[in-house]
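Thread: quick sanity check before group meeting

JM: Hey all, I'm pulling together slides for Thursday and realized we never actually wrote out the predicted structure for the chain we discussed last week. Dropping the sequence here so it's in one place. If anyone has concerns about the input, flag it before I start.
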Amino acid sequence: MFKTDEELRKWLKEKYPYVEKSDEEIKKEFIESFGEEKWAEEEALTPLMDLCFKLCDFLGIEAVPILFEEMEEDARYYNDLDYIGISNDFVHDEIEARKSLIHEIKHLHQKYCISHKNESLKYAPSNLLEQWKKDFSINQRLVPLDELMCMSVEVDAFAFTKYILKEWFDYDYHHYDEAYDALLTLYINKYYK
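JM (edit): ok, ran it. Output follows.
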């Protein structure tokens, strides 16, 4: 249809001229097109994407897209599709969305570390990489919750979440199980301090 990029740009400029709009006008048009809930999702995603970029930079990995979606669990990193889904139950719950994102970013990091084990890695103890690999080879959806929580990838992700929430946000996260929470503190002191 267009022989050059310049022809395409010219056509777009003529067909869809740039119109300056205020933030309120943009919001109004967005809500009219997609609805209030979608606007709330987009507003909630902005600080989460900022956090995603910051965490990934901190861990030395590439950021992935984040979406709110309907799901039973709090969040999930979709390895095959390379994105993080966060439960839309957390659109209006900043701390739960943040906790979920940090946890899933750590799973992204773990998978990166497994495939880059011969490189210098941050927050990836070499003695745990093989266990992480074994944990990810198991279909975790078939593992009972109490066993799942004891897998090395989950302990690491929960400990990292607890550590980041305290260090970056001065938020004291405590797991509902006191013994598990004590384990997370021991893990943090060994691997994150």
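AS: nice. The radius of gyration is 21 Å. The chain has a mean pLDDT of 93.
JM: adding both to the slides.
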